[in-house]
Structure formats: structure tokens, C-alpha cells
Inverse folding.
């Protein structure tokens, strides 16, 4: 008997997701994400606390006090009171009152840690969450990074938190896109901008993915995470809570990630900030952005944005917050590349003539969960004349990435690491002093500003990059000969099958009527 082929073991985050999803039962994904992510966060802060607690316990003879909150504050570790520690919760996981116990634990942690006030979910005693399922979740999450040191545990739990955010976004579909920008899009933005050092700002920060990816980028390139400081704003309080937990689990200071219900236009939480990097995915084509109340706002340096569409209000908000050498990489509806309605064409023209637009990337369809609207990436720079890059004021780089990426399911596409590297390397080779850039027909073109003016400041990459060379390699005679040979082979096979059928029919003996 043939041996059954063993399938490779699934990564831990996928195994955990499948089990957690089975325990969901009748709870909506939008509600369930707070239950699961809250527990992952609780496990993380409890692990970090216990590691320091054990160390202080061993040093009691030297005067250390494991129950002194200041000891934990000094080490940037959250203080977890006895009734909120993971060991306590796990020992009560099978009790029917476990939901109330977890809610009380969340309350106790918020009381002891000012930076977590109003952040943690208290949703565990609800009637639609069956105590047995909650106990199962606690056991499941309790096994993550079991027995590992804090650094390993934090890394695994942070990865699980990020993976779960993405899976919940997929499960929620359109609503998921409101708190989550697909990881491969964020990776591309960050890799192109290279935020090694300075102030990173996202005024519509969702669950904080741009910040997490910036931190990863710095770490991977042997930089110091403390070299970047994070500033953010979010108008949805529930999403803001996710961001605060997402950043805390990564050990990132989220004190400057603010929430207010009015949002960035009406109540800018960082009025005086001049950021070194802005990375953002604002909501597309928003019509109710209070534009009628802001007609004379000082941010509209390149033209007053239309009341019925916030796209160019966002763009000018970003530019307003850039430092003299600041750079921005943002996602925008593809319509903003060509629109001339309500003065948008004039704003785009003013931005081009001011030398702010550095690079435009056309994105493929199906990258985003919450919209089928085609999108593009805009890269802007306050100073394209000098600094660490070459003078690029006379041109804009256009990249057409519409044919890149692969489908992960029927509705969703993502970029591979190779795709991300191809686009980012093209940009870097173009802007870096020692880069080896060359136009590639159908993919990229460094178009002179004079050409952009000729095309009336339309910024669609397809207008500049032309057709790919491989499309010109089509030779009709060769293709026709190949098809002819294939057809002849199929006719021959059909004739052979017909002959075999006739031969077999002749062997069949018909019964006599006598």
C-alpha cells in the first residue's frame, strides 16, 4: 500500500486561528475579534510581568520588591495584579463565571496602568459567549510560547496578534478594511519609504499596522526601534483600542496615538507636528468630511478641496504635516490621478508644479478588503532637490504594478516578497545617487515634468509606461503553426478512438430472434 504523503505542519498562527474560529460558534466576527485579541494581549502583558516578577523575587534579599509598581514602570512593563495574571485565569478557565473573572481582570489592569485606561475590552461576561468556549480559548492562548523567555514570547504573541487582525479583517470583509490595511500593501509602502529614524505619522491609523511594519523595518535593518517615534490619530474608538494593544504588544510607545470622534480634519490632534515620514491609507472618496466648515482652513495651500470628496483634503493634510525634508507614502483612490471635477485637477497641477510628487504606483485590483475601487500609491517629498537622494525635480517616476500579485482566494490578491522588492528596488534605483535605473516598457517610466504638463497633469502610470516589450514579441506565423500542429494531433487522436470503438462494436454478438 502506498504511503500517505505527509503534509507539512501548518504554522502555529494558522493552527491557532482554526481552533479559535471553531470556538466562535454564533458570534459575529466583528465582535469576536475583541474577545480573542483581548486575551492575546492579556497573555502578553502577563508573560512580561511574570518574567520580571520572578527576577525581582530572586533579588528580594538585595531589597527588590516584586509587588512594587514602580519596579515595573522603570522597566516599561505593565503591572498585573494577582487576579489578572494568566495563571489565575487559567486555573479558573473551567468555571461558569470565567467571563466575569476576565472582565474584572481587564478592569484591574486598567486601574493599575494609566496608559491602558479605556483601552481593554470588557466583553467576556456577555450571554452569547458560552463559558466553555471562553475556557477553551484561554487554554489555547495559554499554550502560545509556553515556557519561553519574554523576548521570544512577545515576538510570537505579536505575530499571532497581527495574523489574527488580518484573518478577522478577511472574515468581516468590507467592514474589516476599516481597521486593517493588507500587510503586503503596508510592507510595500514601508520598504519604499525606508523609515529608519525620525517621527512617523499616520493621521488615520486604523489598528496601527503602518507603525508595526515601520518598527519591523528598523529592526530588520539593524537600526534601533527607539530611533523612531510614533504619532497617530483615529476617529473610531474601537479601532483605536486595537491600535493601542497592537503597539503595546510590540513594546512601542503609543502615548501619541490619539482618539477623538471628530477626526483629523475637524480636530487635528497633532497640530504642530512636522513628521519625517507619513504613511497612511485614508478612506477613499469620503463625501461627509465636513468640508463645508473648513473652506478657509490654512492647510489648503494648493487649492480648496471639494466639499463632496476628501481625497485632496487628505493629501494637503499630509503635506501640511511634513517636515522640510519629510516624505510621505499614501494610498489613494485611482480616480484622484485623473479627476478634474470641483477643482481637483487644479490642486493636482499645483502639487506637481510645486515639485512635491515623487512617484506614482498603480495597484492591481482586489488588494483591499473594503472596496473594489482601484487604488494607487502616491509618494511625495518636501525636498526633491538634495539631501541624501539625487535631485529629482525635473521628473516623476511612474510604476504600473497592475499585473503583479497573486490571488489568495477568489476575492483577495496580495503581493509576494519578490513583487515588493521589484517595485521598491525600482524606486530606490531611480532616486538614489548611485542607482542603476532604466525605463522598462509596460512597467516603469521616469517621465519629465514637461511630459506631465503635455498630458494635462494626468498621473495615470499607464499613460507614461507604454506597452510591455513582450507584447511586441508575438509572431503570428509561429503561433499559427503551433495551433495547427495541436489541432492535427487532436484530429489524429479522435480518429484512433473512433476506430477502436468500431472494432469493439464488431466483437459484440447480437442475440438471434429465433
Amino acid at each position: 500500500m502506498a504511503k500517505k504523503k505527509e503534509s507539512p505542519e501548518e504554522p502555529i498562527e494558522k493552527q491557532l486561528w482554526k481552533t479559535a474560529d471553531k470556538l466562535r460558534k454564533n458570534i459575529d466576527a466583528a465582535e469576536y475579534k475583541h474577545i480573542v485579541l483581548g486575551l492575546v494581549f492579556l497573555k502578553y502583558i502577563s508573560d512580561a510581568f511574570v518574567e520580571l516578577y520572578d527576577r525581582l523575587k530572586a533579588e528580594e534579599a538585595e531589597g527588590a520588591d516584586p509587588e512594587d509598581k514602580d519596579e515595573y514602570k522603570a522597566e516599561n512593563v505593565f503591572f498585573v495584579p494577582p487576579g489578572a495574571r494568566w495563571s489565575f485565569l487559567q486555573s479558573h478557565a473551567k468555571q461558569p463565571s470565567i467571563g466575569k473573572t476576565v472582565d474584572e481582570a481587564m478592569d484591574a489592569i486598567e486601574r493599575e496602568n494609566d496608559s491602558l485606561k479605556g483601552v481593554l475590552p470588557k466583553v467576556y461576561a456577555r450571554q452569547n459567549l458560552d463559558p466553555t468556549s471562553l475556557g477553551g480559548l484561554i487554554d489555547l492562548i495559554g499554550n502560545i510560547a509556553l515556557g519561553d523567555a519574554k523576548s521570544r514570547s512577545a515576538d510570537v504573541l505579536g505575530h499571532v496578534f497581527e495574523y489574527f487582525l488580518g484573518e478577522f479583517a478577511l472574515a468581516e470583509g468590507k467592514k474589516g478594511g476599516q481597521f486593517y490595511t493588507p500587510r503586503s500593501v503596508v510592507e510595500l509602502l514601508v520598504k519604499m519609504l525606508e523609515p529608519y529614524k525620525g517621527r512617523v505619522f499616520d493621521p488615520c491609523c486604523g489598528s496601527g499596522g503602518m507603525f508595526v511594519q515601520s518598527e519591523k523595518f528598523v529592526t530588520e535593518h539593524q537600526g534601533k526601534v527607539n530611533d523612531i517615534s510614533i504619532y497617530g490619530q483615529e476617529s473610531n474608538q474601537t479601532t483605536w483600542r486595537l491600535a493601542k494593544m497592537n503597539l503595546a504588544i510590540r513594546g512601542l510607545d503609543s502615548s501619541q496615538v490619539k482618539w477623538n470622534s471628530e477626526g483629523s480634519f475637524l480636530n487635528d490632534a497633532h497640530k504642530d507636528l512636522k513628521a519625517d515620514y507619513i504613511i497612511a491609507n485614508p478612506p477613499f472618496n469620503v463625501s461627509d468630511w465636513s468640508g463645508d466648515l473648513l473652506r478657509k482652513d490654512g492647510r489648503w495651500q494648493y487649492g480648496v478641496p471639494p466639499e463632496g470628496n476628501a481625497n485632496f483634503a487628505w493629501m494637503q493634510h499630509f503635506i501640511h504635516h511634513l517636515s522640510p525634508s519629510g516624505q510621505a507614502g499614501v494610498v489613494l483612490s485611482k480616480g484622484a490621478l485623473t479627476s478634474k471635477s470641483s477643482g481637483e485637477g487644479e490642486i493636482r497641477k499645483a502639487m506637481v508644479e510645486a515639485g512635491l510628487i515623487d512617484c506614482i504606483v498603480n495597484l492591481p485590483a482586489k488588494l483591499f478588503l473594503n472596496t473594489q475601487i482601484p487604488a494607487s500609491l502616491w509618494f511625495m517629498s518636501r525636498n526633491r532637490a538634495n539631501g541624501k537622494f539625487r535631485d529629482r525635480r525635473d521628473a516623476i517616476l511612474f510604476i504600473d504594478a497592475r499585473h503583479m500579485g497573486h490571488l489568495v482566494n477568489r476575492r483577495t490578491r496580495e503581493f509576494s516578497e519578490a513583487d515588493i522588492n521589484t517595485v521598491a528596488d525600482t524606486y530606490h534605483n531611480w532616486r538614489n545617487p548611485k542607482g542603476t535605473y532604466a525605463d522598462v516598457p509596460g512597467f516603469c517610466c521616469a517621465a519629465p515634468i514637461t511630459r506631465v504638463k503635455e498630458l494635462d497633469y494626468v498621473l495615470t502610470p499607464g499613460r507614461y509606461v507604454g506597452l510591455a516589450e513582450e507584447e511586441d514579441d508575438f509572431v503570428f506565423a509561429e503561433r499559427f503553426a503551433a495551433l495547427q500542429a495541436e489541432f492535427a494531433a487532436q484530429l489524429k487522436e479522435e480518429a484512433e478512438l473512433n476506430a477502436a470503438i468500431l472494432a469493439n462494436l464488431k466483437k459484440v454478438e447480437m442475440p438471434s430472434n429465433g
